[in-house]
Write a structure and sequence with these properties.
single chain; 372 residues; alpha+beta; Naphthalene 1,2-dioxygenase Alpha Subunit, Chain A, domain 1; Rieske Iron-sulfur Protein; 2 domains; 7-stranded antiparallel β-sheet; 9 helices; 27% strand; globular; binds FE2/S2 (inorganic) cluster; binds fe (ii) ion
């Protein structure tokens, strides 16, 4: 993977006030995405679900990690597993979607697996030399729950996630994130590189542009600031402003300055979430290729608040999410097209885009660790 000029990468590595954006090739070249598969997606912790989606025995959620279809499932002993959902026979997916089950039966030739991934039965395999169903087990990956988000790592011995996110967890203390549940989900087409979405999510500079009539009057770009620890894989963008008039009081324990702000956070590489005093959102993105991801935006709420909501409240929430996302999609799609133009070069970052600088350093740490 030598498509990116080393000088260009050194410009990304400069201190924030002297740094440039990632080179355009980082976004659209297939071999860069393939390297990201190895160095980021198969190594880092990826968020795959919320814990309430898999709270009961037999609950399962299917997820396509990049180049790795998996199922997260709670087995009969109450233990959580992240298993490959590729059948050990001839590689069909043993399950799709979400739900509750007692076992998984592959639809192709009916091989049946227990919830812990062991093979329970394989019909008409008598006489096959050396075949021992007792030795057949779906490969598994490491699972960790943090703030109610379920993470999976494909690394052999991943460094526990919670220890890397201590400072971020301290910032979230008053929000009680682990009690939130998904109450609405919206899915959007996203035919552009995953990093474009992450960058857009993590800066408020664009409130003066594409969100000038929506976010800017409430959360002005100039007031936003970034907190980060250079050596931990997260970033948080705080956007002081005004609490939404008449909104739900979702988080009653917030300090006064938290009550008036919106924050956006990223756990590198791909968990994005945001909260204000009146609501919380989780952007679930699953990169598929350099030019494509699956994108779902989930609305999160405490169960007692969700129970008190009527259809109008939910419709309003969904309309607000869709309106902001439509504005962001316009610029994300525009950036995607622009990055592929032959004259496009790296750009300069505003100091109001410090999170992007931080994310770029995390990307370089993984992809080009020798660039210092
Ligand atoms: S591929 Fe699954 S049973 Fe044959
Ligand atoms: Fe935006």
């Amino acid at each position: 993977m030598t498509v990116i000029d080393l000088e260009a990468l050194r410009k990304v590595r400069q201190p924030v006030n002297d740094a440039w954006t990632l080179p355009p090739e980082s976004y659209f070249v297939g071999s860069v995405f393939n390297a990201e598969l190895e160095k980021i997606f198969k190594t880092d912790w990826l968020c795959v679900a919320r814990q309430e989606q898999i709270s009961a025995v037999g609950d399962f959620v299917s997820i396509d990690l990049p180049a790795q279809p998996i199922v997260i499932v709670r087995d009969k002993l109450g233990e959580l597993h992240a298993l490959s959902r590729v059948c050990l026979h001839r590689s069909m997916a043993i399950i799709e979607g979400d739900g509750n089950t007692t076992r998984f039966t592959c639809p192709y030739h009916n091989w049946t697996y227990e919830l812990d991934g062991s093979l329970r039965s394989a019909p008409m395999m008598e006489g096959v030399v050396g075949f021992d169903k007792g030795k057949c087990q779906l490969p598994g990956f490491t699972v960790e729950i943090w703030q109610g988000f379920v993470f999976v790592s494909q690394a052999d011995q991943p460094k526990p996630l919670a220890g890397q996110l201590k400072q971020l967890a301290a910032r979230l203390e008053d929000y009680d994130f682990s009690r939130l549940e998904v109450i609405e989900t919206l899915e959007f087409p996203a035919a552009y590189n995953w990093k474009i979405l992450v960058e857009n999510f993590m800066e408020a500079y664009h409130h003066i542009g594409i969100h000038q009539h929506t976010f800017q009057p409430v959360y002005p770009a100039k007031k936003a600031f970034v907190e980060y620890n250079r050596y931990e894989p997260w970033s948080i963008l705080r956007m002081p402003g005004q609490a939404v008039e008449g909104g739900v009081n979702m988080f009653p324990n917030l300090k006064p300055e938290q009550r008036d702000e919106l924050f956006a956070a990223c756990v590198y590489p791909a968990l994005l979430f945001a909260a204000s005093a009146s609501g919380a959102f989780w952007y679930q993105l699953e990169p598929v290729a350099a030019d494509k991801m699956r994108l779902r935006i989930h609305v999160l709420a405490f169960p007692e608040i969700a129970a008190a909501m009527n259809e109008d409240n939910r419709a309003e929430l969904k309309a607000a999410v869709s309106m902001i996302h439509a504005e962001d999609t316009e610029v994300n799609a525009g950036v995607w097209k622009g990055l592929q133009a032959s004259v496009t070069r790296q750009g300069r970052l505003s100091l109001f885009e410090e999170s992007i600088w931080h994310l770029n350093q995390l990307w370089l740490d993984r992809m080009y660790p020798h660039i210092t």
